[in-house]
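Collaboration report, partner site 2.

Our partner group contributed sequences for two proteins of shared interest, and the home lab folded both. The records are reproduced in the order in which they were received, starting with the first partner submission.
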Amino acid sequence: MRAKIRDTEIFFDVEGSSLVVDGDRIHTKPVAFLIHGGPGADHTSYKPAFSPLAQKLQLVYFDHRGQGRSARGSKQTYTLDNNVEDMEALRRYLGLDQIVVIGTSYGGMVALSYAVRYPQNISHLIVIATAANYRFLERAKEILAHRGTEEQKKIAQRLWNGSFENEEQLREYFKVMGSMYSLTYDPSSSGKTWDRTIFSVDAINVAFGGFLRNYNVLDRLYKITAPTLVIGGRHDWICPPEFSSEIAKAIPNADLRIFENSGHLIRVDEKEALLDAIAGFLVYKR
């Protein structure tokens, strides 16, 4: 499905019903926006990992502008600010009140930025493997220098410089870097996720070559009023767990969970535990 909002067209998909018939009663499930990472990827890597949550939530997946199945446009518009405003426009387009917000990696940065700008529109906030300011970039470079192979260090220069030339280079990057992102990475199976992903070179180049170098919402996280769950992976190289701890300390009454057997892709390394943590948080923090 597509929503023509603001100056673009956003692709979105819905999993799970809103109204549930329970005998002679009907109840409404909360709606959750799942915000994909990258930037420069699409929402499909969240499927089917998050699908079990559709038993408790109506899930809305969407692709950021210029990415996945959403409309392309001027790359100068591929900004964090526009991602936040597109998300708010989609919420209004769908006629929703408060929503559950779940963001991973760059999606977590969008989620945090949305939450400080529109705190009244969020019932629960869940951010996974993310950071609140640009310092994660230098820390990631340090970790890669210590843990990465020579091939990984070389190909990561395209990320740091924002210099991917085409989709195939970006797909190659994720395959070469697979063991850095996931402790359970298996080239024979895990690589298939990247084969089906629609990549946007412009989106990732604009982010890492530009606005992420100045990204910072840390000093505004106190504005977040919704119950918040912050999740990090102990072995995450690009958004290391110290940044999850930093976020949790800055948000009033936030809960922090560090997954000891996960890299950046917690939904791959410890999927069942991740889903249990999210489901338990939503029940406990009503």
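Second partner submission, folded after the first:
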Amino acid sequence: MATPILADSVRLADDGVHILDRRVFPFERVWVHCRTVEEVAKAIEDMVTQSSGPYFAALWGMVLAARAAADLPRDEARAALGVAGDRLIASRSTNNHLGKAVRAVLSEVDKDDGDVVESALRGARAGDELYRARSRALGEYTVDLLPDGARVLTHCWADLYLTETVAAAQRRGKELSFFCTETRPYLQGARLTAETLAEMGVPTTLVTDGMGASLFSQGLVDALVTAADRVSMDGHVVNKIGTLGLAVAAKAFGVPFHAQVQAPDRAAPTAADVPIEYRDGDDVLHTLGRRTASTRVQGLYPAFDVTPPEFVTTVVTDRGPLGPAHLNQYYEQVEP
């Protein structure tokens, strides 16, 4: 099966980083050309790329920073990379993937005094391969939790976590079908999730964000499966706004909620340690560029919400499924 286009939507080239514009996908396939770190950071801020896309953008953005600093003395080049990394991390505050990407590159640069561009490129490639490998493992563990014929409700765009889950099911001959919430206001579920699932040949039904509880009540869903932008060590799941409501409804109707994340975040002992990004409230007053409310009202847009552990059945990691009260076990396992 061919790789879905959104699984390879950030690419490094000689002339910069090319990012598939998810704001207009699937109606248009436009690649945004970023020649500098600042342009990469701005693309992340402007939602050109989302979910794991910013991780890959940060990896290759750090290579651009290394290219720009190639003629500087080693200590000045390293300082410039540090500044570039801080800028990329600041472009999205809730998801901690950008920090992981930056550290993957800087750790390789700091290993020796060799060519800074080559070191950055090695670090970025290693970070790319590691993320994909961990997503494959996570997908396999998720499929273990889903019976053959499972009807899955997902929310927003889970990116490689979702595509690897589907690929793992297909390798095993398990048939899955999906309900996708449309995910206001950017409609990632409608434009990204549903399109990619259809591209992979999976039966897919689009529903509005408010339909989840009704589907649960009718027994039409066997599992709620979403990604998580972060999971705190005390079991709180931070994900796209709307996840909390679905998780509460799933609990009420006895539907398990499996939250996918490569690893719980040791830098976030509690949910209070995770900054919640607020985006421009004007976004919720529009859909695909068309205003949907009058000028007499205002909008509020917290981009993420926090689901308490009592509404989470399983946190699926790349080292296996864990109960939300036992996330410390992830770090008790031997490092890969």
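Feedback sent to the partner group on the second submission included the following. Residues 131 and 205 are 29 Å apart (CA to CA). The mean pLDDT is 95.
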